[in-house]
Design goal:
This protein is α+β, with helices and mostly antiparallel strands and about 170 residues long. The protein has helices spanning about 55-65, 85-100, 115-125, 165-170; strands spanning about 20, 30, 40-45, 70-75, 140-145, 150-155. The chain has one domain (about 15-170): Glutaredoxin.
Length: about 170
């Protein structure tokens, strides 16, 4: 499990650009590289009932990428141990089964004391149903404005393609 770091305290930041995360290959990067883009951040898993959403995520990534849209996948093994693989296995699975080309990052925790600072920020900025911050399952989605702030949070059962209206709205803003 990667210990994702950040350059500032999650509660002190007003956008995603101050966070440092690890790519699937372990190299660190700051999310500031996505400045000015509309971004969809998703906690993913390879053995989940929602895993076929990789296809929809790849489709919207390809549809809107040239307009300044990114999908960022963060594998997580906290829900039913549905992402047991290492980085190489995760990458191979996503490429072979779903043709994933959008960026994947190192496996993280999204809940609990070991939750990645990025996810602490996301959950605080966009609580779920009834104001509950915790992530309930794999494939919870956060849509990010061009300024790096959270636009909205979507439940795992929300299909990626159903986000097209919101994505187009943010891209044209």
């Amino acid at each position: 499990m990667s210990n994702q770091t950040n350059t500032t305290n999650a509660t002190d930041t007003a956008n995603i650009y101050n966070f440092t995360v690890e790519r699937l290959d372990g190299t660190p990067t700051t999310l500031s590289e996505y400045r000015g883009k509309v971004v969809l951040i998703v906690n993913t898993a390879s053995n989940c009932g929602f895993t076929p959403q990789y296809k929809g995520l790849e489709e919207i990534y390809n549809k809107y990428r040239a307009q300044g849209f990114e999908v960022l996948g963060f594998p997580c093994n906290q829900f039913g141990a549905q992402e047991p693989g290492n980085a190489e296995e995760i990458g191979a699975f996503c490429e072979k089964n779903y043709g994933v080309n959008f960026p994947l990052f190192a496996k993280i925790n999204v809940n609990g004391e070991q939750a990645a600072p990025l996810y602490q920020y996301l959950k605080n900025a966009a609580p779920g149903l009834l104001g509950i911050e915790g992530i309930k399952w794999n494939f919870t989605k956060f849509l990010i404005n061009k300024d790096g702030t959270v636009f909205d949070r979507y439940a795992p059962q929300t299909k990626p393609e159903s986000l097209s209206g919101d994505i187009e709205k943010l891209l044209s803003a």
